Amino acid sequence: MTETVEFARMNGLGNMILVVDMRGRPDVVTPAAAIALNADPATRFDQIMAIHDPKVDGTDAFIDILNCDGTRAQACGNGTRCVVQALAAETGKKAFTFQTVAGILNAVEHADGTISVDMGRPVFEWDRIPLAEEFYDTSRIELQIGPIDDPVLHSPSVMSMGNPHAIFWVDRDPMSFDLDRFGPLLENHPMFPEKANITLAQVTSPTTMTTRTWERGAGLTLACGSAACSAGVSGARTGRTGRTVEITVASSPNCGKLTIEWREDDHVVMTGPAEWEWSGMLDPATGAFRRDDAEAAAL
User: Which residue of 12, 14, 84, 199 has the lowest C-beta tally within 10 Å?
Assistant: First the structure.
């Protein structure tokens, strides 16, 4: 067993997150470790947020993000809020700048405990999302599930928030759809050469909507921050909502809400909660872990 590192089990709006402290080390959390951790009910997760030493001047850390199937993700807004809460508790700082493979993210913890993350600018160009076919207008593309004359889902808005997203607009509760059946088909559809996050979005007013997401590499999750950003932007882009929207995640209605603001400077800011659950030590090579003794004894 290699030298272990500290980690925390947290959640962002119910999105299950493991925050792993890899600072001061040259190695990474391996895909094998991620798969092993996800296989244990105690450490099952949607994303791992591994905090590494900064690689770029002016940043606080480099964040390596892993999905529960061991693949690497470009962005995770809910996980980023968890990282902010963990580092704010450790350092007393309130504002942070992170580097990810998707770019630079700025985040701040507010006095009420909510955390805002600047997720950057949305990408609408078909070849940068990317899509397998050229579409001049990606606010609505030709894609459907179900019979041609009566599709269950159709005409999604597609975009990237550092990772590819397809937003299908629905007129009833997203929980009433069989997303665990449609999700894998759409995630792996030939239209998406790098796969895609699939979200069902129900607009409930010009300032509110309800969403449910099948995450690329993770499956059905209680919440997805970048999907919420994509739904909020796509709602404004298609005239369904204004540029600020409050999003309720249908699969996690008791965990709070996300506020998505698509600012006039084109940046998308997500604001919401994060919650610490418990901490321990783990081997980043194998995924072997133990909970902190006091917490484990209390179980």
Answer: 14
